Structure to design on (250 residues):
């Protein structure tokens, strides 16, 4: 298994002989407006892609965890070949198909999907709490399994919650990718994992390796890589958590 952080939540995953492009946000730096009510007026994405976009346009399959713009943007819709297979959560397939993609498959709740020997199981999560969590809508993570590969849990846009704890108990992942950044608005709590959430995760699964992404690219993600690494160092967890830079392989 090899994982490259492209930027934010966009990943290039080589797993079980298959290349996955996950949550592609391929817009050029600053072409999108700031997230409203974030307390930060910088335009998104905050940083450019770490290389020419063409290198990420020919995966075997695209996986979209949910349809928020920072995970599936207009640039991805325009640049990716519409004949590529696209996997998504239940309820998102119709919209992706309406954008011109001809091979869209929804991963149904509680029904694992198989793609050329790689099994994907959808997992739940909470994209915040209270009214904000309700308004953010349904989000998904996925557990990957394949012969000769470690069990991989892509948690998606979620905070630390009972759904995540249940996945850890049921699936025993060896590698966990978390969307960090502590994204939040000017009111309400965080909607992706913050420093404390990641500490909780590490304490819950002491044998697993963690990869933290989803930082330093969108204006409402207030937990930076440096802040996260400082907290992990204080908790003696920095050796357990990879915090890759854009373009870096793990």
């Amino acid at each position: 298994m090899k994982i490259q952080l492209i930027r934010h939540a966009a990943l290039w995953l080589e797993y079980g002989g298959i290349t996955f492009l996950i949550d592609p946000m391929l817009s050029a730096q600053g072409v999108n407006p700031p997230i409203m009510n974030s307390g930060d007026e910088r335009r998104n994405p905050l940083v450019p892609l770490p290389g020419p976009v063409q290198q990420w346009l020919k995966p075997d399959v695209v996986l979209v965890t949910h349809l928020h713009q920072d995970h599936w943007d207009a640039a991805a819709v325009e640049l990716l070949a519409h004949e590529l297979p696209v996997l998504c959560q239940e309820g998102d397939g119709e919209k992706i198909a309406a954008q011109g993609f001809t091979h869209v498959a929804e991963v149904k709740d509680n029904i694992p999907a198989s793609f050329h020997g790689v099994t994907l199981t959808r997992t739940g999560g909470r994209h915040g709490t209270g009214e904000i969590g309700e308004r953010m809508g349904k989000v998904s993570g996925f557990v990957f399994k394949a012969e000769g590969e470690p069990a991989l849990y892509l948690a998606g846009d979620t905070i630390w919650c009972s759904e995540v704890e249940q996945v850890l108990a049921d699936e025993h992942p060896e590698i966990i990718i978390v969307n960090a950044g502590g994204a939040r608005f000017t009111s309400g709590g965080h909607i992706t994992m913050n420093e404390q959430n990641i500490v909780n995760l590490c304490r819950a699964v002491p044998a697993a390796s963690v990869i933290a992404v989803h930082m330093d690219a969108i204006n409402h993600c207030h937990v930076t890589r440096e802040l996260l690494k400082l907290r992990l160092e204080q908790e003696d967890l920095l050796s357990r958590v990879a915090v890759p830079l854009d373009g870096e392989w793990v």
Q: What stands out?
A: Residues 2-242 form a domain with the Metallo-beta-lactamase; Chain A fold (CATH 3.60.15.10). Residues 13 and 91 are 24 Å apart (CA to CA). The longest strand covers residues 2-7.
